[in-house]
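Subject: Protein entry, chain in single-letter code together with its fold tokens

Category: Structural biology, sequence-to-fold work with a learned token vocabulary.

Notation: Tokens come from a learned vocabulary of local backbone shapes, not from coordinates.

Start of record: The labelled sequence and token lines come straight after this line.
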Amino acid sequence: MNIIFWGTPEFCIPIFEAIRNSSHNIIAVVTQPDKKRGRGKDLSFSPIKQKAIELNIPIFTPESIRSDEATRKSLKDLDADLYVVVAFGQILPKEILNLPKYGCWNIHASLLPKWRGAAPIQWAIVNGDKQTGVCIIKMDEGLDTGAVLLEESIDIGCLDNSDIVKEKLSNLSSKQIIIALNNIQKYKNKGEPIESISLISQENIDREKTYARLINKDDYLINWQETSIKIHQKVLGLYPNCYTFFFNKRIKITQTIPIDDKFTNYLDENIRSFIGTEEKHMKPGQIIDTISEVGIIVKSFEGLLLVKGAKIEGKSELFGKSLVQQLTTNNRLNQMNFNSDPIN
């Protein structure tokens, strides 16, 4: 089948390549416009645009597909069999959804109807979900409300950050989309209409409906008044951008483990002795000890948190011994605190 691929971030690349390596043909790509990135504010292409350039595939970069009449006309003239949409970044209007003969199909990185919206992977991890997955849905005018053609789940590991889960789901999606396309191809070969394909309404799926809103800059600030497990989930889900303050310097926390019975298998023997020994008189955010080869132990509102990796403002990411040395240089342990504001 002739396909127009809609997508923007790195997550899309394995899916794009899987389709390219199949019996189906990508005849054009629609992606977000070039953006200014870095200190020099140089324009950079989206990962999907870069891939399309390498393969000499026609590219469309509408600022708004709703108002870009020229792009809509060009897409209509291409007369594709169907569209595959993966993290494109704009909502498609009804006029676009109705163009391909065999529909618009979206790969969404959650088990719908849970985590509809822009950041499903991040919020699933922050929320402490044990599983996530991918759904391939026939798009309608709602936000990720279309009927489901295929779905498959994966487990979220206790130490899986958003980059790890994205990679797992991208690879899973690249397999599932080929199954879906081959399924649709059978209906096309028989000359049957798209309405003949068997789909499951999300209203008939027994899962909670939740919304995965966009991440904003305030979400990244660590609140030490939360439990150690909640802080850990946040560090994983919003990796690598969660931050706190240390002697008025911003420090990104990149690798943590709660010192808790549930995480015993992930803790070194010399850390396990801290389980259940929380110092009640200490304040949340206070560093209560350092383990030279491992990291630092911090009190939260409830429980202790082992910080194994961090990036101090103006420096590269540090782990274990190097992190301990950097934080303890010229600082007394009983004066060392992480804070949710720069006042210290």
In short: The CA atoms of residues 81 and 173 lie 20 Å apart. The chain has a mean pLDDT of 93. Residues 2-212 form a domain with the Rossmann fold fold (CATH 3.40.50.170).
